[in-house]
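Input record (one chain):
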Amino acid sequence: MAGYEEEYEANLNPLPTIWGVHPYYSVEERSEAPIQKFVEHLPNGGAGDQLWFTEVAARKCTDLNGSPVENGETGQAERAKWLVDTLIRNRHPEHVFYYEFLLKDREQPECRSERVDDALYVPSSDPNAEDRPRPAASFIWNGKGDPWGYTGGATNIQPEQAALTASVYPGGFLEAKYHFEYGITQNYGSYSSEGNAGSGTSGVGVDFPVTLQPGTTYHYRIVAWNSEGSTVGEDHTLTTLGPVEAVTGAATSIQQTEAMLNGTVNPRGYDAKYYFEFGTTTSYGATTPEDDAGAGTTPVPVASNATGLLPGVTYHYRLIATSGGVISYGADKTFTTPRPTFYLSSSNTAPNGNIITPFDKPGDIPIVGDWTGQGKDTIGLYRPSTREFILSNSNTAPTANVDVTFGNPGDIPIVGDWTGQGKDTIGLYRPSTHEFILSNSNTSPTGNIIVTFGNPGDIPLVGDWTGQGKDTIGLYRPSTREFILSNSNTSPTGNIIVTWGNPGDIPIVGDWTGQGKDTIGLYRPSTEEFFLSNSNTSPSGNIIVTFGNPGDTPLVGDWTGAGRDTIGLYRTLPPF
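The corresponding structure, as predicted from the sequence alone:
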């Protein structure tokens, strides 16, 4: 017995019940005599249900590079098969085990030396197994010619598919077939297509694409079989990529009828598309147009404009990303469209929204007046789409106390106490004809006074310029920044003409000090500043105060009955 075999036997743990070392009897002549002589060396003449071998047909082998030498693998396999078939047929053991022995560093004994060895494995570059089985191994290990299968890694892993790989060694005698088992547990449950590995002695690299679910961990293994039996490879796992990632972001630029919906999409290397769903419930119902998110591997910002919204309504929305039929849903988020809101301040020097009240419909124009003669001003609206005046007697709980139609398309609403009766009534300025049309009634409006005054582009004004107890008309001419104030409604003329302001300023009128007459003022949208003058002939910014947001409309009224006017705002956009 060679020294390394003795060492191997000494270190064998557990020690087989029946143990013997092959005495190098040749089976070249395929005679049972050497087998019988071998059996005689076994304890109890080989009686028992297990037989163990360290070598079989130790004749020739491959070199360290895997190149065959004289007879090579095929010759060994044939001799091994004959030996095992004969042994099993004559001895009928329950199990036949074959132990390879290698040096401590797992170095394969060299050929053409006293260390000739027909080991079970030889070192290999096979990507699916550290060692390569010799064709004889299946006969020795199993007692029959089963093929060998080694489960490999998964490749081309995508959200809904992957390629499973393996190496199959047919064994050199019988045609071997194979397939993959796979599933979310080690019970598997799904199978790939069947493949044919042939009947050669070398390993066959195989791979099969399988259809999977995104973002899921799968178990899989190779199964190889032939007419004598089957073997299974080791269990491996893979995790499919999650689908294209969609992350719903915050809505921005929220207006009464539209909003910008934002989010991020990570295409994860796939050609990705996206769109948003939105609606008043989580059933959504409306979508933005589909757009392209590219095919990158990092999140990219995306945005779409949701249109056709209603003011003062809460909307649900979410981002949806798609790639190759795989759909990813972002989380549901909400936003609320703004309602046009009145912000009424009781102070001109430290303005604040002392009264904040929504009263709205898209496109409405705010108006202010003392509709009932109660001594304080309340809010109202003019609706150009229907030419309606909607007047409320309350600033805190506004409602349509008066709702009346008056005017033509394109008219501009005005309000004043035309007769000195102590309450305000409605009127119109018609830019197409430069006509002021003044009504003495809010419920049955008519043109009690119709007078032409002004030039194209002029902005109508109303105020009690002289403290006479009734309002008369006026104009602001943006082209020259002139205030043109008339003391008469029936024969208007420029009793006061004064230049004041900057391009883009909006004219306002009010009794800032409670002196009993109105003076002019300006609102500068570019800086959200109010400029209030106590004089109509030598205007100056007696009070300059900042109040408002971009897009606000300036208002003036006596909100509390204090006997003087203070500023306010009408806001159709959300605060910035």
